[in-house]
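Suppose you are handed only two things: the residues of a chain and a line of SMILES describing zinc ion. What would the bound structure be? This form records exactly that question and the answer produced for it, so the two can be stored side by side and reused later without any lookup.

QUESTION INPUTS
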Amino acid sequence: MPVPMLDDFLAYTLAGTRPGAEEKQGTCAGGVRWSWLDDGVLQLEPTAPEKAARSVLASAGVHGDETAPIELLSHLVRDIAQGSAALTCRLLVILGNVDAMRDACRYRDDDLNRLFSGRHAQVPNSHEAPRAAALERAATQFFAAASAERGARWHIDMHTAIRASAFEQFALLPHTGMPFSHAMFEWLGEARISAVLLHTTKGNTYSHFTAQACGAEACTLELGKVRPFGENDLTRFAGADEALRHLLAGTHGTKGDAKAALPRAFTVIDQITKHSDAFELRVAADVPNFTPFVKGTVLACDGDYRYVVRHDEERIVFPNATVKPGLRAGLMVVETTQDTLSSLV
Ligand SMILES: [Zn+2]
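ANSWER OUTPUT
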């Protein structure tokens, strides 16, 4: 029997519909069991998952206006429910900032993707604080029942970027102190992600939370530019979509095709900091992410503070001169592909 919630999970969620007590779970095609857990939170699992089956958290809409990956996830739910997409592992689908999705904005009070790992407790009156706490609980509960075997826990958090990028699709990997995994790099390659940014300090993103607190192989994907619902050319996101479907079907890495190239790696070496309102960022307002600059280039000034490029080449990521004084106005990275790929475990 068709379940309207599963046929269009996005529309169901945007409408604010909540299932009655009798309608919170059921079985769909192929014996997949589904459970509605919260607004925008849906768990799906095969009737008899293999013992060491993967547990995959797939999230989108942590920024409410990043519509394309939200639509992809909603289509994925529909295809699993109808039996046209295979599911051999546990799956938790999360549409992140539902209220912001309804308003077609990034967030209402605070960037949800800066409130994880407990930071929501510091802004209790923020509209986003309860949602950050709820999404932390959802992830914790989901992974509590997951296999502890290495590589069994995955979190793919899908975003679209505001600005252009020298690498159109890239990923950010959280810093937990653990080495980066070969399986993740291979999966990113299969998803046609051409560059990976490696953080070197702890963050407050959702993928950082699941990596640190839940032991997940976690990544944040930046999949091209933001557009309104229905206006996305979803074929541009086919690489990530197919790779996610392979991961869920258990066919990831076993196709026998020529392996996709691993992404290039870039490690954060510094940040540009805005100290005062006199801050001046000396790059074009629309400079693409990962634009390279040569040694000696002055990228920012603010009173006595200067940011001068020290390496032969440094690239700027997420420049933003409009942040509040004291905050980060840009990340600086250098290429570390060789060292990174040779140290994957
Ligand atoms: Zn985003």
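WHAT STANDS OUT: The chain has two domains: 4-249, 265-342. The CA atoms of residues 144 and 277 lie 46 Å apart.
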